[in-house]
């Protein structure tokens, strides 16, 4: 294993990247290298997929994101992006305090699932105090409670051809000429099965607030804030991301953000 890692490092150094900066500033480091008309560019599809592959090589699949103690929570989770969706289906669920909400798990699974919030809350839970990093340059430490996504994947029995988990959200964003565009996100099965990847219904010992994504939002603790879809309507197992949005795997990705937002 060790020599494997060393070889990867040598590969990185040989293309002129300091290996130590890659997991944190992968794209910035690679963008310059790829923009100079280098022949290597033709070999590598995009900086984005290279970043993803490099990070997947260097990061242990089960490596945990740092967890903090309660005393390190200084404030409530700062709401960002959509904070008060006014989409019709969402408002209907909101009116009855999400009693009529059901999470759907569908796509490339043997057994599609549909669960109420109460049913999800009765499953074994996990609580973690983690730091949320937004690309806008702020972070926030908060305590999140929910169920591990891996539980649902096991139950639904993911088909072998599935490669990604797509989160479909209730909210849409005004994207200028494109009109209202639904928020969505996606991750690979490594992150989906990671022990800290939870569907959270609680934050800082309270039910998840509307502003932070009630009734259910995902926590993907080794990636940036925009990956952590709020207001989850359904979860879909897929083999390709091309049918969704502009095909880049997420609302912000469709506008240029990296699909793998590693931190
Ligand atoms: N559905 C949905 N999920 C979303 C967003 C959004 O606008 N809509 N914004 C993202 C961004 S950029 C961040 S930083 C976090 C903010 O989560 P918070 O409001 O709980 O801080 O949610 C992410 N998930
Ligand atoms: Mo963000």
Automatic annotation (TrEMBL):
<dbReference type="GO" id="GO:0016491">
    <property type="term" value="F:oxidoreductase activity"/>
</dbReference>
<feature type="domain" description="Oxidoreductase molybdopterin-binding">
    <location>
        <begin position="98"/>
        <end position="240"/>
    </location>
</feature>
<keyword id="KW-0560">Oxidoreductase</keyword>
<dbReference type="InterPro" id="IPR006311">
    <property type="entry name" value="TAT_signal"/>
</dbReference>
<dbReference type="InterPro" id="IPR000572">
    <property type="entry name" value="OxRdtase_Mopterin-bd_dom"/>
</dbReference>
<protein>
    <submittedName>
        <fullName>Sulfoxide reductase catalytic subunit YedY</fullName>
        <ecNumber>1.8.-.-</ecNumber>
    </submittedName>
</protein>
<dbReference type="Pfam" id="PF00174">
    <property type="entry name" value="Oxidored_molyb"/>
</dbReference>
<dbReference type="InterPro" id="IPR036374">
    <property type="entry name" value="OxRdtase_Mopterin-bd_sf"/>
</dbReference>
